[in-house]
Amino acid sequence: MTKPDTGEARLRMQIGEATAALLRLDDTAPGTAGQLVALVRVVADEAARTPRFAKSLSTVLSQGAVSPGAGPASGTGGTSSVRYALGAADPDNTVPARDTAPEGSVAPAQKAPARRGKRAPGPFDPFAVYREAGEPGLRVQLDVLDAERLKDIIAEHAMDYDKLAMRWRTPSKLRDRIVERVKALTTKGDVFR
What we know:
Elements: H1 6-28, H2 32-49, H3 51-61, H4 79-85, H5 126-143, H6 147-156, H7 171-187
């Protein structure tokens, strides 16, 4: 049997101390300990699954607001250091309360904006080509473009009505979508003329 390294041994000791504290909490406030265990489990699972979340969690925890083992039993910080980490006043009253989230993070009440990059404009106007050269001329112009340039045209002219075309990778499907939409929009209303 190999001897565990000191980091793993320290972690196991801290887990044991946390277990004892949770059992004491369950005696005084039944149910609360189970909720804390569920919360820690969800956070740990997400950190193990998502490297970006693990890095953000590590950054927040390494800022020193709440140090491991700081609690009422250890006499180092305890509840006041937890309150400080959550944005309350400094335990020594030397720093006012924070009313914004730490730099580089999103405040809990705010939603992160959806990431939407702007695509480049299409290399040409498919409607103008269709008016001048018809469907065969449009297909010839589209045949020389790669999937990304075809997606640029689709995005510029809002041809992704069912939110599927921007996921496609096959140039032939993208070309067919452009021709379909150009024909449909060009002939729209012809019945009334």
